[in-house]
Automatic annotation (TrEMBL):
Protein name (database record): Uncharacterized protein
Lineage: superkingdom: Eukaryota
Taxonomic path: Eukaryota, Viridiplantae, Streptophyta, Embryophyta, Tracheophyta
UniProt xrefs under InterPro entries: At4g02000-like
Organism of this sequence: Hibiscus syriacus (Rose of Sharon)
Amino acid sequence: MDMEESLMQKMEDFSFTATEIDVIFDREEPEIDGVIEGSHYLIGKLISRRTIDGGALCCTFWAIWVTQKVDEVLDIGDHYFRIKFTTAQIMTTILNRSPWTFKGDLFALAPFVAEKGLEEYDFDSMAIWIRIFNLPLGSMTKTMGLTLGNGIGTTIAVDMRVVGGTMARSFEFEWLLI
C-alpha cells in the first residue's frame, strides 16, 4: 500500500466520538476563531468561472462600503468571503441592496450561520433588477413587464413609476433568478 492509499484508508476510518460531536455542535454560543453568530457577519460568494484576485475584491468592497461601516472583508477561499459590519443596521442595509457586482460578476450575500459549511449556503437564486431600454412605447406596460420578466424567471415586481411627470425611457422589473 503506497502513502496515498494509506492516507485515504485513514481518512475513511476517521470519525468523531459522540463527546467530540457534542463539543462541536452543542455549544451555547457558537464561536469560530472569534466569529460569533449574531455578530454582524455576512457570507459572500462571487459567482464567476474566472480566477479572481480575492485581495482586490476585499479592497474594492472595503472602499465601497466605507471603512467606518466594515470591520473586515476576508477571502476564505473558492470565491467565498466573510464580511463583518460594525452594526446590524449597516449589515442589513448592505444585504438589502444586493446583489453587488465585481468586475461584471455577481457578488451574492447571505447571513452568516455558524453551523453551516460554505457549500450549505444557497446562492442558487436571488432577486435582481433588470432594465430594458428602447422598448416601443406601446410595449411599456405592466403586462409586457410581466411577460418579459416571466420569460427569464419569476417576476416579483414591475416598476411603472412616472418620474417628474414623464415616463422613464427604460423599463424596469425585478425578477427572481432560479
